[in-house]
């Protein structure tokens, strides 16, 4: 049966720590069966009116507030819904990472929960809380559909609401705030426990990297730690060296390295980032407009030339974290370089044969290094 997810955020995208809501960021999805939506909305509105007659959630440290919340959680247990949340600890994020930008922050983090939802629940539609201008909302919708929906040919319904006309979006907002307050120690009511039968998981991000999770096999590589440290050191050095540049190309290169570093640090070290995803990210800054060819020639190539360790494959780009990454990178290019050298050598030999040795292409000064390669290759 088709389901609808109502998604709301609790907390802000900034890194200024001024209140308990500033240390953590929640994205909460309330899930209901489509055919029961109206019934559940009505039941929730009546429950909210009963628990909070004035429409406002009372203070967490008041007896009235605690009593009201107990009534709310007791009543919610009778409603037919479930909820799923993503908990982001902003204290573990680098403040100079691409997550400092509002658009990247919301898109990247929302993508984590949408990716999980769409690949788990079939026939899912989404009603999300509005986060900014209509232009940003449209770019956000396209980002989710292009990067996180399973069926690109029949995309699921993805709409936005300001919350006032959606009771279940209000419920998602309340649950997010309650989760945030409990996480910060401002409330003794844990929604995850109080609504244990409704909660279908609170994912924490970023997870601390350990060799017992996704990258467990890498612990057997004696060079893994050394390769990882070298990759991180060079990436961070590049960012620091070019921080503050006004040159749009340099700013794009820095944004590229920052994104590689962010995914490597906070997501999966083994994940390759597809060129399409990187182009979307860079073009969103509007420093420059990049096609695939221009991206490779003016961003990836020059960054590698400055010593940043970036491996690539048909799946995309990443920072290396083990010997396997390095060998894979060499294999990827060796499969292209060796056939090219073979074709050049074939052409060179044909010209020498046809001209009786008078035309020696490799005598040109520009081909000095190529001459060394071809004359010593057994091809």
The CATH architecture term of the largest domain is 2-Layer Sandwich
**CATH top level of the largest domain?**
Alpha Beta
Largest sheet: 6 strands, mixed
Strand content: 5-15%
Radius of gyration: 27 Å
Please, how many domains?
A: 3
Number of helices: 12
Order of helices and strands: EEHHEHEHEHHEHHHHEEHH
Poorly predicted regions: 209-219
CATH homologous superfamily annotation of the largest domain: Ribonuclease H-like superfamily/Ribonuclease H
| Helix percentage | 40-55%
Through-space gap between termini: 62 Å
Q: What's the count of strands?
A: 8
The CATH topology of the largest domain corresponds to Nucleotidyltransferase, domain 5
Outline = elongated
Please, what is the average pLDDT?
83
Class computed from helices, strands and strand pairing: alpha/beta
Strand order of the largest sheet: 5-4-1-2-3-6
Walk me through what this model shows.
49% of the residues lie in helices and 13% in strands. Helix 1 (37-51) runs antiparallel to helix 2, helix 8 (248-266) packs across helix 9 and helix 8 (248-266) crosses helix 10. The chain has helices at 37-51, 63-76, 102-118, 134-147, 167-183, 191-194, 224-242, 248-266, 275-285, 292-305, 323-354, 368-375; strands at residues 3-10, 24-33, 82-89, 124-129, 158-161, 199-205, 311-313, 316-318. Strands 5-4-1-2-3-6 form a six-stranded mixed β-sheet, sandwiched between helices. Strands 7-8 form a two-stranded antiparallel sheet. The chain has three domains: 3-205, Ribonuclease H-like superfamily/Ribonuclease H (Nucleotidyltransferase, domain 5), CATH 3.30.420; 216-321, no CATH class; 336-375. Residues 209-219 have low confidence and may be disordered.
């Amino acid at each position: 049966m088709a389901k609808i997810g109502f998604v709301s955020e609790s907390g802000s995208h900034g890194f200024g720590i001024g209140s308990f809501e500033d240390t953590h960021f929640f994205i909460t999805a309330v899930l209901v069966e489509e055919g029961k939506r109206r019934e559940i909305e009505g039941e929730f509105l009546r429950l909210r009116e009963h628990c909070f007659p004035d429409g406002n959630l009372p203070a967490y440290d008041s007896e009235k507030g605690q009593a009201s919340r107990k009534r709310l959680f007791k009543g919610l247990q009778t409603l037919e819904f479930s909820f799923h949340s993503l908990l982001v600890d902003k204290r573990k994020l680098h403040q100079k990472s691409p997550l400092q930008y509002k658009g990247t922050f919301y898109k990247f983090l929302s993508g984590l929960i949408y990716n999980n939802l769409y690949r788990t629940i079939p026939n899912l539609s989404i009603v999300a809380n509005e986060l900014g201008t209509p232009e940003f909302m449209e770019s956000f919708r396209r980002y989710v559909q292009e990067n996180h929906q399973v069926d690109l040919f029949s995309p699921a319904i993805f709409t936005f609401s300001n919350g006032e006309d959606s009771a279940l979006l209000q419920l998602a907002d309340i649950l997010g705030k309650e989760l945030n307050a409990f996480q910060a120690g401002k409330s003794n009511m844990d929604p995850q426990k109080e609504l244990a039968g409704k909660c279908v998981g609170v994912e924490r991000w970023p997870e601390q990297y350990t060799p017992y999770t996704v990258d467990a096999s890498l612990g057997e590589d004696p060079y893994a730690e050394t390769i990882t440290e070298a990759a991180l050191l060079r990436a961070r050095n590049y960012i620091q060296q070019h921080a503050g540049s006004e040159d749009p190309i340099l700013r794009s290169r820095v944004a590229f390295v920052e994104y590689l570093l962010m995914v490597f640090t906070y997501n999966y070290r083994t994940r390759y980032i597809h060129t399409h995803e990187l182009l979307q990210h860079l073009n969103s800054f509007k420093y420059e407009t990049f096609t695939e060819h221009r991206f490779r020639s003016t961003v990836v190539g020059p960054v590698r030339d400055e010593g940043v360790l970036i491996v690539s494959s048909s799946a995309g780009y990443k920072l290396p974290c083990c010997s396997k990454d390095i060998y894979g990178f060499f294999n990827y290019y060796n499969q292209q370089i060796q056939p090219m050298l073979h074709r050049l050598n074939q052409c060179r030999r044909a010209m020498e044969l046809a001209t009786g040795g008078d035309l020696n292409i490799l005598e040109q000064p520009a081909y000095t290094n190529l001459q060394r390669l071809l004359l010593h290759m057994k091809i």
